[in-house]
Write a structure and sequence with these properties.
- The complex is a heterodimer of chains A (about 260) and B (about 290).
- Chain A is built from 11 helices and 10 strands.
- With about 260 residues, chain A is α/β, with parallel strands linked by helices.
- In chain A, helix 8 (about 185-205) links the parallel strand 7 and strand 8.
- Chain A starts with a strand and ends with a helix.
- With about 290 residues, chain B is mostly helical.
- Chain B has a single domain (about 1-275), classed as ABC transporter involved in vitamin B12 uptake, BtuC.
- Helices cover about 75% and strands about 0% of the residues of chain B.
- Chain B contains 11 helices and no strands.
- In chain B, helix 1 (about 1-30) packs antiparallel against helix 10, helix 3 packs across helix 8 (about 185-210) and helix 9 (about 215-230) runs parallel beside helix 11.
- The chains are: A alpha/beta (about 260), B mainly alpha (about 290).
- The interface of A and B includes residues 71, 95, 99 and 106 of A.
Chain lengths: ~260, ~290
């Protein structure tokens, strides 16, 4: 489904990604791990087209993403969350989630911009459908009680769930989660892990996640890709990766 | 008492104009984080084109609608041609671009239409409505037209998807792009709206201050003061600030400092707000992690 081939990114003299290759198959949950600065978030930003890619290619369902502008990525079926949560802070929770659906709401109908402003009846109907869908998602993620609150005023754990709801509202086929459980407490982590597992079964979603919480990654992933200094050092099922000497070296250093 | 009420109503009419222009400033500020110094001259060009249309024989309201549409297009084009290429430049460069745009538009207006003062018609009757002594027809009309426009804008931003998308872009451009919003188009739309609002304000104030290339300079100072008083990032604040400044200006001019010193009210207000409460009445205080 997603295929990163020899992806290379440079920031000035620093090579952030040095020929990274890995595949994500349909319906899989893939964990992307590695020490700080390994290039995990950079990889995400390349797939979202926020960073320029200097070499290699990224294919999504056979189509190169490098030819697409950033605003098309959501329409193609990829949505994501951010490490530090990038919500629309001044808007309500409900509005945040509805905006998530912007991509597919516009992909089906060709009407945009002026079209929407003038065809009131159909626009209103489409709007109601979006609001209903958003309400469902908020219920699923336990956000109904805060739907009309401003996103800025809510605690971090809640904001993470809002961002997840916004990403799901886009009806993605590939969901990218950047450190979904960082900063959450134990109960919240268990709940979210369960939710992510459920996504795979119910929505047939493919998930690519970056995470430092090892138990969570190893528990939830079908496959783990390990990066270190911009290079892929391991790729395989969690059990195999956990015992890979390269991976242990990268995380713990060598005893010399 | 009659005199006082008259001054208050006249102040509300001016305040409605300041509120509209302040709102246009706030809209641009929210998406670019710059104050659009050229806002007044955009409105000036719009007012001149309305005047030209009326001179050419168009009826007042036809000229009004055509001008608002033209101004919208002008805003979109200016965003595309002048503002977008400079959007990644350092802050000072962008400010200079705004000032350059202001001077250029002003000079073009003077070049085409000359520097003599022209009178601009009012669509409202000359005698006061219902035979009252407090408020003239034009003043009442200005308040009605502006409040109507502000109401429409409120409905647009609050209740339509397109309005929500515009608010999202103002809040967080990067996230907007990731949910599939074409941010550049929305910026163009924002500029178009700001220019259209300015056009309405210019056409409404022209019969009061008369039409010449320096017509908007004083008006814009009051609008800046209004936007700052309300909080430069708050649309509600801009409207409230506009009405407060309008009434304050008129009362101060009539009873305290005289009409010659009226403009000082705006300047003093700008300084006081920036010193005492930079975030204004409704604005979000800016806090940065250091």
């Amino acid at each position: 489904m997603l295929s990163c081939q020899n992806v290379r990114v440079q920031f000035g003299g620093i090579t952030a990604l040095d020929g990274v290759t890995f595949d994500v198959a349909k319906g899989e949950i893939v964990g992307l791990i590695g020490p700080n600065g390994a290039g995990k978030t950079t990889m995400f930003n390349c797939i979202s087209r926020l960073y320029p890619v200097h070499g290699g290619d990224i294919l999504f369902e056979g189509r190169s993403l490098l030819a697409e502008p950033p605003h098309r990525i959501a329409t193609l079926g990829i949505s994501r969350t951010f490490q530090n949560v990038a919500l629309f802070d001044t808007l309500t929770v409900a509005d945040n989630v509805i905006l998530g659906a912007h991509g597919h709401a516009h992909a089906h109908a060709k009407r945009r911009f002026f079209g929407e402003a003038f065809r009131l009846a159909s626009a209103l109907r489409a709007e109601r459908a979006l609001a209903d869908e958003a309400a469902e998602l908020m219920a699923e993620l336990g956000l109904e009680s805060v739907a009309q609150r401003t996103a800025r005023d809510l605690p971090f754990g809640t904001r993470k769930r809002i961002e997840l709801a916004r990403a799901l509202a886009a009806r993605p086929r590939l969901l990218m989660l950047d450190e979904p459980v960082a900063g959450l407490n134990h109960a919240e982590i268990d709940e979210l892990t369960g939710f992510i597992r459920g996504l795979k079964g119910r929505r047939g979603l493919t998930v690519l996640l970056v995470e430092h919480h090892m138990n969570m990654v190893m528990g939830v992933s079908d496959k783990v890709v390990v990066l270190d200094f911009g290079r892929r050092i391991a790729d395989g099922p969690p059990a195999a990766v956990k015992n890979d000497p390269e991976v242990i070296r990268a995380y713990l250093g060598t005893a010399s | 008492m009659e005199g006082l009420l008259h001054q208050v109503f006249a102040g509300l009419a001016n305040g409605a104009i300041y509120a509209s222009l302040a709102l246009a400033l706030v809209m641009i500020y929210r998406v670019t984080h710059f104050v659009n110094f050229a806002q007044g001259e955009l409105a000036l060009c719009s007012t001149y084109s309305a005047w030209a249309l009326i001179e050419a024989g168009a009826s007042y309201w036809v000229a009004f609608v055509v001008t608002v549409a033209l101004s919208f297009a002008m805003g979109v084009v200016i965003e595309r041609v002048v503002i977008r290429p400079a959007s990644r430049a350092p802050a000072l460069s962008v400010v200079i671009v705004f000032i350059g745009l202001m001077v250029a538009l002003n000079s073009v207006a003077g070049w085409i239409f000359g520097y003599s003062t022209l009178s601009f018609p009012s669509p409202f009757p000359a005698e006061p409505p219902f035979g009252n002594h407090y408020i003239g027809s034009h003043e009442l009309g200005v308040i009605a037209v502006t409040l109507g426009m502000l109401g429409l804008l409120y409905v647009f931003f609050r209740f339509t998807t397109l309005g929500l998308v515009l608010r999202a872009v103002a809040d967080n451009a990067e996230s907007s792009r990731l949910v599939g919003i074409r941010v550049e188009r929305m910026l163009g739309l924002g500029w178009g709206l700001a220019a259209a609002i300015g056009a309405v304000a210019g056409i409404m104030i022209a019969p009061i201050v008369f039409l010449d290339p320096s017509m908007m300079s004083g008006v814009m100072l009051y609008a800046f003061a209004a936007a700052l008083l309300g909080g430069i990032d708050s649309p509600i604040g801009a409207v409230v600030g506009g009405f407060i400044v309008g009434v304050l200006e008129n009362l101060m001019g009539a009873y305290v400092i005289g009409t010659e010193l009226k403009l000082t009210v705006a300047l003093v207000l700008i300084v006081v707000v920036l010193v005492v409460k930079p975030s204004g009445l409704f604005g979000q205080p800016v806090a940065a992690r250091v």
